[in-house]
Amino acid sequence: MATIDLRSLPPEELAAQLKEKGYPAFRATQIRQWLDRGVTDFEQMTNLPKDLRQELAALYTVPGVTILRKLVSAIDGTVKYLFRLDDGETVESVLMQYKHGWSQCLSTQVGCKMGCTFCATGMGGFIRNLSAAEMVAQIEAAQQDAGVRVSSIVLMGMGEPLDNYDQVVRFLRLLGEEGGVHIGMRHISLSTCGVVPGIYRLMEEQIPLTLSISLHAPNDEIRSRSMPINRRWPMDELLRACRDYIEATGRRISFEYAMIDGVNDSDACALELADRLRGMLCHVNLIPVNAVEGKSQQRSSKARIRAFMDILEKKGINVTVRRTLGADINASCGQLRRQEQQPGPGVDRKEALP
Ligand code: SAH
Ligand code: SF4
């Protein structure tokens, strides 16, 4: 049975494998060109000799995704996809339009092990890692469906990217290559809940992406209550890793802070947060928390968010409030997959089937 994931293979590895079978290196280039054009059926790769096409079909697969559901926001055109993977599992992805172009939020795992209490993805537990090819396929599918070119990527969909380190880095390297999906590292953000060893590994890769840290609390007491990973790598360790990362790369870190009513949004929390981030080359992004079915969390009021922001600003911290996109389609990740698993009256009627 064909088992080798052709799309995740770095070109030089594919060339080496073909060489072992007696084919010249330019065959690998030809194969990549077909993949970049969206051709995944080996029989259609007409400039390859017939025996190579047969051998490819026997040994290699090209993982893909198909659109299972699609929601389009009537407010701002944001598109949310539920993709089906080859083994029947599903992941979500969101396509958003900004002034500078289209940005896509990708999933890196089916489910997640981290169990953050406010997150819909965390509720379903962990199923499996995605391959680098399945990450690329999400971009190709969205580009083809929407007829647009994606110019920036955020790894903020389902899953914890640094818990699937090797495939995520392989994916990033594939993106940097010439070809169908070419996106520069400066247009990529990776968000982590705080896998400290992964932050150090990433630092050594010297990939100039933007690192986002899901902080969501100013101290261990509050953070450990909602983010179990904080018990493994508490805030002192996490913030030390962030400072080391900034020093080594010269790059600014972005801290995500979901504003949850009565949990982490008091003036005292803002003061404590400002104190901990003092002097750091960083940016705080306040996110009104999204409601999740089955969870009681409420987003902080606009006035509360404003007051929180003012305190951070007065303390010299660079801060913004995230613009809400796709509010009518519940564009944060994890919820559509859950609905698909337990269809019921809560299913969004704005659904537009492909
Ligand atoms: N696992 C990674 C990336 C995926 S989650 C991480 O945790 O960073 C992407 C972002 O969505 C994270 O900042 C996460 O904390 C946030 N998030 C999860 N559930 C949310 C919710 N209900 N409302 C707002 N943001 C949420
Ligand atoms: Fe996983 Fe991120 Fe959700 Fe936490 S917030 S459960 S790390 S996807």
List keywords for this structure.
354 residues, alpha/beta, DNA polymerase, domain 1, TIM Barrel, 10-stranded mixed β-sheet, two-stranded parallel ribbon, 13 helices, globular, binds S-adenosyl-L-homocysteine, binds iron/sulfur cluster
Task: Explain how this protein is built.
With 354 residues, the chain is α/β, with parallel strands linked by helices. It folds into 2 domains: 4-61, DNA polymerase, domain 1 (Orthogonal Bundle), CATH 1.10.150; 69-341, Alpha-Beta Barrel (TIM Barrel). Helices cover 36% and strands 21% of the residues. It has a 10-stranded mixed β-sheet. A two-stranded parallel sheet has the order 1-2. Strand 4 and strand 5 (90-98) form a beta hairpin. It is globular, with a radius of gyration of 21 Å. The two termini are 31 Å apart. The model is unreliable at 343-354 (pLDDT under 50). The structure holds S-adenosyl-L-homocysteine and iron/sulfur cluster. Iron/sulfur cluster binds at residues 112, 114-116, 119, 121-122, 159-160, 193, 214.
Spell out the helices and strands N to C.
EHHHEEEEEEHEHEHEHEHHHEHEHEH
Strand content: 15-25%
Question: What is the CATH C-level name of the largest domain?
Answer: Alpha Beta
CATH architecture of the largest domain: Alpha-Beta Barrel
The biggest beta sheet is recorded as: 10 strands, mixed
Tell me the structural class: alpha/beta
Going by CATH, the homologous superfamily of the largest domain would be: Aldolase class I
Q: What number is the mean pLDDT?
A: 90
